Here is the input.
Amino acid sequence: MPFAAIDLGATSGRVILGRVGPDHLVLDEVHRFANTPVRLPTGLHWDVLALFRESLDGLRLAARAGDGVTSVGIDSWAVDYGLLDADGALLGIPHHYRDSRTEHVADRVRDDIGPQELYGVTGLQHLPFNTVFQLAAARDGAQFAAARTLLMIPDLLTHWLTGAIGAEETNASTTGLFDARTATWAEELLGRLGIERGLLPPLRRPGTHAGTLLPHVAAYTGLPADTTVVTVASHDTASAVAAVPATGPHFAYISCGTWSLAGLELDAPVLTEASRLANFTNERGIDGTIRYLRNIMGMWLLEECRRTWEQRGEGLPLRELLAAAAAAEPFAALIDPDDPVFLTPGDMPARIRAFCHRTGQRPPETHGAVVRCILESLALAHRRTLREAAELAGRDIHRVHLVGGGSRNELLCRFTADATGLPVVAGPTEATALGNILVQARAHGAVGDGPDGLAAMRALVAATQPLRTYEPAGDGRAWDAAAARLAEFGTARRL
Ligand code: LRH
Here is the structure.
């Protein structure tokens, strides 16, 4: 059966057609487009209309691809939202989470609700751009006053495709307004934050039907009007984790793209003070699972370096950069990827050099040395995060699944295996789209349902997608020494 996934990432979007049967799972990317944020006097925004138009064009291509489209599912990055007025019109242009307007807002919210209490209910890691802080920044504005409905980005697109209103729960769990213990909106907190309960739509679970296409959407795309939009795990990371080809409980995952999301899959949230202080999050996965993880700055560091170099006419193809990194001196310079100085867009090589200066290291000069510094530092951050997660959750890790675009980066996979001392299974690259498609397929009975439905989905991924295992090798003691060096930098405040 064919299913269409609209998969929106922070730098690009895709429409992917997935064909699923009992023993096959084949993806066909029918449309890819850039996701380019736009800076306006009001800050950094997403071009949501362009994203919607490109999604429609992708669906149109999917409709023509030959064997039809059983249903459509949408996932995107988390935390960002659009506001609708009483007539259902979009108020303003959704902000990008990397916009700086939330910079000091968290402190204000903390004055109203203490961080312990906030964590005890939501279990959410502190990130300056969590929806709760974005809303606090927006609260005194004219748009917020007129707002009647808040829709997360995939829910907004679902609304524009179908007219339906709802809040998908894996993405709702990234807002800071969701109760991790009960999987409902955190009603009591809302009142104290000055957020009307009615602003938040009813929650919906992955695997349920959101609605059917509006007539003008069906006419434009060429899809039948009774085509359903299935609610998938609309937070891209939740979709990616659903497609991790793991068996048993003793695995960790790293969903590695713009961000590295590294952690464990648990049955219940960990809401301890130690967990809060280590800044682990308890986001919702499919089937009521908990994604116990921490955000690591990820390939963003490399992407921003490449953007800076390209602007200066010094750009090199990724292959050449990675070859230069492989040949560069090991552990010459290290950064803490979780230092907030790396969060916002801008001259990344300069910020990396400044970090090295500040910590008494010789700054990397060549492109190869910068890339080596990034990849070794990311591998060390993977190690630190997974070890802390294992300890805080009381769960042994026997292997690491590294999925997403970063799984194509051999050097990063090898460094991660060496740094963690664990086998790293790399792939699938398209984990997010696979998770999106598999949840749709399951809703249509095309993969095993029932209590072990998630295991059946993962078994299908393992049986059909190319995977590569990196056994830990190299000099373990050199990685231990590098980890100790990183620990000494004492980054004042992590993400
Ligand atoms: C990854 C991601 C991540 C969020 C961030 C905003 O794309 O969804 O899980 O923390 O974007």
Observations:
- The chain has a mean pLDDT of 96.
- DSSP finds 19 helices and 22 strands in the chain.
- The chain has two domains: 2-237, 246-427+465-494.
- Residues 10, 77-79, 97, 235-237, 258-259, 261, 295 surround 6-deoxy-beta-L-fructofuranose (CB under 6 Å).
